[in-house]
Amino acid sequence: MIDVRKFYEQLRKNGISFFTGVPDSLLKDFCFFVNDNTGKESHVIAANEGNAVALATGHYLATGNPALVYMQNSGFGNAVNPLLSLADPEIYAIPMLLLIGWRGEPGVSDEPQHSKQGRVLTGMLNAMEIPFSHLSEVVENYQDVIDDACAHIREKKCPYAIVVSRGTFDKFASQRKSSNNYEMSRAEAIEIILRNLPEESIFVSTTGKISREVYDFRKKNSRDHSRDFLTVGSMGHCSQIAMGIAMNRDDKNVFVLDGDGAVIMHMGALAISGSSGLKNFKHIVLNNGAHESVGGQPTAAFQVDFTEIAKACGYKISDKVVSSNELGKALKLFEKIEGPAFLEIRISDKPEREPGRPDTSPIENKEAFMNALNSNKI
After folding, report:
1. Do the beta carbons of residue 369 and residue 203 sit within 8 Å?
2. Under a CB-based contact definition with an 8 Å cutoff, are residues 278 and 231 in contact?
3. In the predicted model, is pLDDT for residue 177 greater than 70?
4. Do residues 259 and 291 touch, judged by C-beta distance below 8 A?
């Protein structure tokens, strides 16, 4: 395994002093180290991977020094456009180092949403003519890999990717403490939501632990989960999935269970949902100020006001709650009011027990959901 401190120091020796990206579970120890050992002037957790490429571009234009952009390969799609139309050597020729966590690596067991993206990652890099190297726990010459990559981007003025396998980095315990003092847990909030909203409602939940909590609650309480669409992957897009459903099922309330990092990733969706005029569209955001599903790195969610942004985007009602009592009361109103409606729930970022993972496949979830919709079961 690679010591993250030594890896970071090797990058610094090669003139890499600015870091940006979206946290990844395979890179979380490196991300924790960077977050603990750099200031705001040297590290930005970006809204999405494309934004991170743009930040790295701006840093290079201002300083002449390449930056490092980290991401999970599931978010690589967000970076494709700026990599090809901005940083590419045929356009602006912007050197940058990409550090990509390889979820779904062929031959390595992973969640179903990562299998296709893992299989095609190297093919995508080849098709985009982005040179790359591969690091794993058995690679001993990582210093040479970094040196060669940095020499290449400076000489050719282009992006270069280092693809990182699971288990490559040693563990690093972050020393930064949470500033979140909210008491309600994610699991508690989701249980209150699912117990208080009508059984016949439609739910669309975002990727990661929120969808896992929804499935976990249904399973533990022997409840039907065919009314739930569990979004795996596609971070930031569940609200638009829900909007597409709401447009075609105006006889049912459609509730979105979203996360703060996901909302920030594609915040423009709020403008579309808010201006839709859909009376049955109800948007709930569980905000713990962290990318919890990939390690708990901070988001900017407590530095912005989601409720005011939602109002400005056209949501008819926008409210915020911070306790279980407030949530229970708010849901009674939230169910009855006409949408588009928005509710932010501030929750704790303290570590919780790991929710179970669905024992049905994404396709099985989709089929059950569509069958329920078409059979008027919901």
Report:
1. no
2. no
3. no
4. no
- For the segment 269-323, what is each residue's pLDDT rounded down to a tens digit? 999 999 999 999 999 999 999 888 777 788 999 999 999 999 999 999 999 999 9
Annotate 151-209 with DSSP letters as a single string: HHHHHHTSEEEEEE-TT-BPP----PPP-------HHHHHHHHHHHS-TT-EEEE-TTH
**What is the spatial distance between Cα 97 and Cα 103, in angstroms, rounded to a whole number?**
19
Residue 113 pLDDT: 84
The SS3 of residue 321 is strand
DSSP string, 25-51: STTHHHHHHHHHH--TTTEEE-SSHHH
- Give residue 303's identity as a one-letter amino acid code: Q
Within its chain, how far is the Cα of 35 from the centroid?
Answer: 17
247's tokens: 């447009």
Strand partners, 318: 342
d(CA 115, CA 206): 19
Q: Which residues contact 60 (CB under 8 A, 6 or more apart)?
A: 66, 67, 94, 95, 96
* Rounded Cα gap, residues 32 and 25, in angstroms: 11
Distances (CA, A) of 298 to 18, 38, 287, 344: 18, 14, 11, 17
Query: What is the four-CA torsion angle of 191, 194, 197, 203, rounded to 10 degrees?
Result: 140
CB 83 within 8 A of CB 130: yes
Residue 93 in 3-state DSSP? coil
- Residue 351 has φ and ψ, to the nearest 5°, of -55, 135
Residues for the chain: how many in total? 378
The torsion of the CA quartet 205, 208, 212, 215, rounded to 10 degrees, works out to: 30
Partners of residue 68 on adjacent β-strands: 19, 97
